[in-house]
Design goal:
The chain is an alpha+beta fold. It has 2 domains: 1-48; 51-184, Protein of unknown function DUF192 (Jelly Rolls), CATH 2.60.120. It is 29% helix and 28% strand. It has 3 helices and 9 strands; from the N terminus they run αββαββββββαβ. It has helices at residues 2-47, 84-89, 171-175; strands at 57-64, 74-81, 101-111, 115-116, 124-129, 135-141, 154-155, 161-168, 182-184. It has a 7-stranded mixed sheet with strand order 6-5-8-3-2-1-9. A two-stranded antiparallel ribbon has the order 4-7.
Length: 196
């Protein structure tokens, strides 16, 4: 009887040992899979900058210029950068912009801020505007080819602003966008008598 009990006890120990090994093995497999998944996620985030996934709403906007008094305002298609992530991404990595398109940066408060051209591939015109959309200052910005952001020049207006408009270099001259021009973030009104 004692031998039988000893054998049963030994069998239980063996069974428990195998069960414990299975649980440990399963735990190790789960941890390895979790570690692998985390590693793959980190590699994908490193390989593809997070800001590449930033989405922008596109709105029609209307700009009038004092140089074109009596003429129709110009209709623009603008991507809107209202969040910190959107403003940080801006027009980085773009290789072109269509003629009447660009990006408007909207800030929660009026203030003095600087823009830079780090990872921006095309030259841009920038207009700094007050809360009513009136252009107070215009500058031209050249792409920065430096690998470190800290080596890129910054562009800062002389006056505080609430919004900024960026378009491809030369478009401000073509559209007569100057100090005193006014941007409205709505479609241009239709002329009376024109079909909708």
């Amino acid at each position: 009887m004692c031998v039988l009990q000893l054998q049963m006890h030994r069998a239980n120990l063996t069974l428990n040992l195998h069960k414990w090994k299975g649980e440990v093995l399963m735990s190790v497999r789960q941890r390895a899979c979790g570690l692998l998944a985390s590693s793959l996620l980190m590699v994908s985030l490193w390989a593809t900058p997070a800001e590449a996934h930033v989405q922008f709403e596109t709105r029609q906007a209307c700009i009038t210029s004092p140089a074109l008094q009596g003429q129709q305002p110009t209709l623009l298609q603008l991507e809107v950068a209202e969040t910190n992530e959107q403003r940080a991404r801006g027009l980085m990595e773009r290789t072109s912009l269509s003629d009447n398109s660009g990006m408007v940066f909207i800030y929660p408060t009026t203030g003095l801020r600087s823009f830079w051209m780090y990872r921006t591939r095309i030259p841009l015109d920038i207009a700094f505007m007050n809360a009513q959309g009136v252009v107070m200052e215009v500058q031209q910005m050249a792409p920065c080819h430096e690998r470190k952001a800290s080596r890129c020049p910054t562009y800062r207006p002389a006056v505080p602003y609430k919004m900024a408009l960026e378009m491809a270099a030369g478009r401000f001259a073509a559209l007569h966008i100057t100090t005193g021009s006014k941007l409205s973030l709505h479609a241009c009104p239709q002329e009376i008598g024109n079909p909708s």
